[in-house]
């Protein structure tokens, strides 16, 4: 790791010289959390995002992880999904299926993708219902503070505009407090119809990792992490602030290039 450090209230920073090093760190990090969770709870409930993240998780399909991770105990969810057919090129499910799920022995019935044959609103309601059933059976834990699901790990990417999951800057769903899963039909990034975990659900997770690469996201990383004053408190990536869980930023040097460097160590 090139640099590591912590920012008050903004979590741990892990900054990597190369994408190869970042991929290894990400695989190690996820494998370790999986082991802890399986030991403590017997299962590992992980929520994925789409975009560049799945490619960066690719080492999990290789040795040693493909053999050492207890894949049978994994339960897969999506922090956000585009409301398109499951075989559509824009589907986050398809991305994960082709890039990860088909390459490791995950139990098919543990993969919880959205209902792609209904409206965005119905898909969000249906997905929340599925999550509620799995909270009842404790496949997903429940937060001690809110009644929200407590995923063992939510892995997020971030767009150059600071969006995470399908929570975009200045969108009214950023204020959603009651629902666990909501929908949008006006995403500024295509496709327009999406479902997304809400901020309270993200912030109830035991662990949240935000994985960001590339210089085009450096300004958003700075605004999400550094002390930039009250104007940016409503940037979606800045609203990621687990109440009791642990937040980790896994960055490459380009994405980290605009961070204030005072608190780094080699
Ligand atoms: O549309 C989306 O974008 C973000 C960021 O994607 P990236 O390709 O810039 O990493 C992603 O995290 C989200 O899941 C996805 O639906």
Going across the major beta sheet, what is the strand order?
4-3-8-11-12-2-1-13
What number of structural domains do the residues give? 1
CATH class category? Alpha Beta
- Secondary structural class: alpha/beta
State the low-pLDDT regions, or none: none
Number of strands: 13
Largest sheet: 8 strands, mixed
Strand content: 15-25%
Bound molecules: ligand LXAUTJHC
> What is the architecture at the second tier of CATH?
3-Layer(aba) Sandwich
SSE pattern: EEHEHHEEHHEEEEEHEHHEE
CATH topology: Rossmann fold
Helix content: 25-40%
Mean pLDDT: 96
Tally the helices: what do you get?
8
What is the distance, rounded to the nearest whole angstrom, between the alpha carbons of the first and last residues?
8 Å
Radius of gyration, Cα only, in angstroms? 17 Å
Shape field: globular
Organism: Camellia lanceoleosa
Protein name: 6-phosphogluconolactonase 2
């Amino acid at each position: 790791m090139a640099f590591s450090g912590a920012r008050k209230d903004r979590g741990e920073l892990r900054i990597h010289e190369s994408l190869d090093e970042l991929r290894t760190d990400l695989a190690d990090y996820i494998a370790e959390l999986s082991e802890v969770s399986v030991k403590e709870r017997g299962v590992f409930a992980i929520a994925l995002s789409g975009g560049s993240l799945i490619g960066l998780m690719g080492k999990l399909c290789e040795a040693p992880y493909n053999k050492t991770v207890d894949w049978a105990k994994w339960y897969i969810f999506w922090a956000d999904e585009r409301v398109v057919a499951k075989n559509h090129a824009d589907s986050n499910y398809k991305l994960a299926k082709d890039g990860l799920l088909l390459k490791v022995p995950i139990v098919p019935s543990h993969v919880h993708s959205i209902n792609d044959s209904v409206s965005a609103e119905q898909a969000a309601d249906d997905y929340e219902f599925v999550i509620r059933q799995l909270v009842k059976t404790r496949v997903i834990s429940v937060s001690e503070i809110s009644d929200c699901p407590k995923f063992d790990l939510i892995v997020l990417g971030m767009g150059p505009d600071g969006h995470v999951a399908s929570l975009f800057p200045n969108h009214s769903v950023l204020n959603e407090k009651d629902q666990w899963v909501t929908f949008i039909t006006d995403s500024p990034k295509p496709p327009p119809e999406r479902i997304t975990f809400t901020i309270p659900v993200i912030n109830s997770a035991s662990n949240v990792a935000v994985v960001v690469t590339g210089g085009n996201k450096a300004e958003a990383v700075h605004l999400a992490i550094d002390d930039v004053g009250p104007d940016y408190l409503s940037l979606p990536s800045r609203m990621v602030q687990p109440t009791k869980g642990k937040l980790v930023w896994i960055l490459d040097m380009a994405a980290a290039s605009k961070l204030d460097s005072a608190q780094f160590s080699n």
